[in-house]
């Protein structure tokens, strides 16, 4: 039987209830952020959000609103933005800035020297800022077999493990879907990513498990997390279909997924990475945090 903690219950738990939400949605963005009162969370999930989903909101405004909602991180940001996060006592749970692109990654040996130099320069900066996760990508197949791509990725990544281990920074390769959003991307199944992690052979290389992407590619999200959590450093959310809000408009039941993540002993961050469409962006973000705060 499904857990009695339903999406409807989650939405009712929003500070101030439905009346606050209704009034907040009619306010200008800065006032709306103030209207969303500070939220008391359970403390079992470390909440983060991906900045690119809120590009219309200045970082400082998102920091202020995020703190009120219970966020402790805003991520997918580079060194120029980390001081702003620190100003608001926020971290960047997944840093970026060393990658070449999603399509040009470690599966192509001709990029290895460039990527290694970039990551060698970025890893100490990440560590100095007190951060511990740095994103990376496999790149597209471009006719390459998955086996060859895995070998190539392992060769390139192994060159970075000594530096990553020294600075205690985990390189996290994101799992992306190649069916809808990122055609031809190689790291598009959990099993492939796990085998790559085994080949690299360091705790400083793991996977960014994007729930949205992996629901599209393979489904079976909870069991996949249960069986492969030692190889996962970070999680992203997103509603399927469409990467919309993670409410009752989509097919994933996030309270159960969050509980499964907690049950693995995970102590890292879960980042909201959906594109707000049906509501005010900040209202949608707050609802998602409540839904995931099991």
Any overview of this molecule?
The model is unreliable at 1-35 (pLDDT under 50). The longest helix is centred in the middle third of the chain and has 22 residues, at 146-167. With 294 residues, the chain is α/β, with parallel strands linked by helices. The protein has a single domain (7-292), classed as Divalent-metal-dependent TIM barrel enzymes (TIM Barrel). It is 43% helix and 11% strand. The protein has a seven-stranded parallel beta sheet with strand order 2-1-7-6-5-4-3. It has helices at 7-12, 17-25, 29-35, 59-69, 82-87, 112-128, 146-167, 190-200, 211-217, 221-228, 254-263, 281-292, and strands spanning 46-50, 73-75, 133-136, 170-174, 205-210, 232-236, 269-272. It contains twelve helices and seven strands. Helix 7 links the parallel strand 3 (133-136) and strand 4 (170-174). Helix 2 (17-25) packs antiparallel against helix 3 (29-35), helix 6 runs parallel beside helix 7 and helix 7 crosses helix 8.
Helix content: 40-55%
Order of helices and strands: HHHEHEHHEHEHEHHEHEH
Q: Which strand-content bin applies to the residues?
A: 5-15%
Name the CATH architecture: Alpha-Beta Barrel
Output the radius of gyration: 19 Å
Counting helices, strands and paired strands, the structural category is: alpha/beta
Instruction: Tell me the name of the CATH class.
Output: Alpha Beta
Low-confidence stretches: 1-35
**DSSP helical segment count:** 12
User: What is the H level of CATH, i.e. the homologous superfamily?
Assistant: Divalent-metal-dependent TIM barrel enzymes
Mean pLDDT: 89
